[in-house]
């Protein structure tokens, strides 16, 4: 019967779905835009069969903190060009839009990109339009506008983005900005995606008690001032925040991942909750390409086990986005978003944002499937397939 024929069958030397406890040779079968079956015993006729006997097949990768945009942000890059081809099928913006440009962002990015895009709405109404620091004027830190935008019923907004760095708050008291962010978050039942101050005028020890269970600190393995470690150990107040339920995200970017901090943290068992790139305009054309597989590889080089790393680019960010069961899994019935990665032992050294290097190899993208359709092969997205 025609219904017994899969549309797509992908076989791989290693198939991994953390939520299913699956890590073995096998296959994933697809019908339409849904996963029909996955595991070591999956076989059958298919209209298209692809074989990757030496490679790794995962759910499509989820990047919780990056900058997908199409003209709405000074940092933004086209998600279908810069993320989808690299194994990332879902990417969340860290504040590229605020209340004033969310409608345009949704119409020109969220609603039309082939990549699934979600938003941590900027607390500042202006988002990242132009070059003005988003919190330089308290008039832009409009709690009511932020709340109205979220309460309009938009499920695409999962969090409120707030970076309290001195370069963004200007002469304003960062405590006032954070207080407004918490007010908006409380009224909308959203977490904060929070960039800490990194300045002695407001220490990390004084900032952490402001955060609530479920709030997410990004840039967590930065070596800049007021970082998570002190005297070669994770600060006690950081551990206390974790025990209260505060979450920690990588947000690699251009200044926020240091192997030394990562190795201290991982050595103590302090693992990030999510691994993200903070990939933005300055990364375009980087060589080697800054992307989520390479960022993941840096965490492995710092000592994280693969079994701990896979959930942090699949199931865990999917949960935070409210998409558990739909993405980040190879479970039958889930959206058929898939990524095939290949280990390159001869890859160029992994480099952190302080210039530190580690050698030993890197995971690199080979195939991306989005909603059942092959959209990228060998890290290249055929332009004709992109929406």
Structural overview:
- With 387 residues, the protein is an alpha/beta fold.
- It has 2 domains: 2-59 and 332-342 and 364-385, Roll (Urease, subunit C, domain 1); 61-320, TIM Barrel (Alpha-Beta Barrel).
- The chain is 21% helix and 26% strand.
- The protein has a 7-stranded mixed β-sheet with strand order 3-2-1-4-14-17-18, with helices on one face. Strands 5-6-7-8-9-10-13 form a 7-stranded parallel β-sheet.
- Helix 3 packs parallel to helix 5.
- It is globular and about 65 Å long.
- The model is unreliable at 382-387 (pLDDT under 50).
Poorly predicted runs of 5 or more residues: 382-387
- The count of domains is 2
Helix fraction, binned, reads 10-25%
Beta strands, count: 18
Query: Order of strands across the widest beta sheet?
Result: 3-2-1-4-14-17-18
Q: From the alpha-carbon coordinates, what is the Rg to the nearest angstrom? A: 20 Å
Count of helical segments?
A: 11
Question: What kind of sheet is the major sheet?
Answer: 7 strands, mixed
Topology as a string of helices (H) and strands (E) = EEEEEHEHEHEHHEHEEEHEHHHHEEEEE
* N-C termini distance: 33 Å
**CATH H-tier superfamily of the largest domain:** Metal-dependent hydrolases
Based on CA inertia axes, which overall geometry fits?
Answer: globular
What is the CATH architecture annotation of the largest domain? Alpha-Beta Barrel
Range of strand content: 25-35%
Mean pLDDT metric: 95
CATH fold-level label of the largest domain: TIM Barrel
Category from helices, strands and their pairing: alpha/beta
By CATH reckoning, the class of the largest domain would read: Alpha Beta
